[in-house]
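User: Could you check the structure of this?
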Amino acid sequence: MPNPALLGALARCFLAGEPDVEAILARATAMLGKRHRWLKPLALRYVERFGAQTRPRRRDVIRFLAQARLKFSVQRWVTEEAKMQPVPAAEGWEIPPLETVGALTEWLHLDPGQPEWFASGKKHYYYRLLTKADGSARLIEAPKSGLKHLQRRILSRILERIPPHPAVHGFVKRRSIKTFAAPHTGQRVVLRMDLQDFFPSFHAARIQAFFRTIGYPESVADLLGGICTSSAPRAFRRQLPLHGQPHLPQGAPTSPALANLCFWRMDCRLAGLARAAGASYTRYADDLAFSGGEAFERCADRFPAHVAAILSEEDFRVNHRKTHIMRQGVRQHLAGLVVNDHINIRRADFDLLKAILTNCVRRGPGGENRAHLEGRIGFVESISPAKGVRLRRIFDQISWP
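Assistant: Sure, the predicted structure tokens are below.
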């Protein structure tokens, strides 16, 4: 079996471009000096093994080649500097070409060694454990100022320049819960599903693979992935075992965008499943929504099982307690909005806010926060302008100190 240096040289030929058999044969033949009989079958097996995945790690390709027990020598050593190798879909994205760790360090305005330090783990986060309405726990992992600054730079200069899937409406500019719910108005049946442990389900390996896919060399992709992921301290791991491995932290500015982008293949599969059933599909973070007419209504009871099966193939889990099939005749609601005939605010939410404002007019604002109430009224105005006008008139009558 060839030594590691020879295997590394051959692995570079396999990794130098897209997993295309003819391109691999051309690069390897140039390096080896001739086309060995074993080369084409090996290239075919490589494409079958790695072609449908994100760009593999170099160590995985070397392991694959070592198992083939090849006999060869190198006629011409090719020493290429690391370079951007995006998949075809990513070639037009205007992201910074960071081809070395040094280039990444300079781009982040850090000193040598600091990217590795920021990518090293949990010492850069504040932790807060919250109890949700159903009794389960949620861990907020908020990055400290130094790391947050780096994450915001990665978000604005890299992640926000990559288009999300059309079905995604959460944490995307010019999209909102209104655009999330709009495709599902006036439908015979609306299905709402919820993903369990959404952010912790994105492990660091998935994030690093994403950065390799958009073109960054492995060393750069690993550091970018490390800066954007975290593992929780040991004190939280018994209650929240998924948080023990490096994952997307809920509270980091990069996490929503990375979750959306890494969920691309799942969004494609779920959108395709919906089309096959005569339904529409949208997603807002971990909330999934499907709706349709008579064709979808006939299969609505079985449809959640198909969705759960697809999600489980990618290591995501459905919170089945939050799965609701809503037919006409009952209130159909998504993300707090009613969608039966048109998008509207829930009656109880509107009445409660109106009562709070009326009480402020009669008895004074007391401890109410003016900016908070204005924000809630602004939200109502964005969904139902007529109701917003009614609330705004009451708000204008409040005597603020």
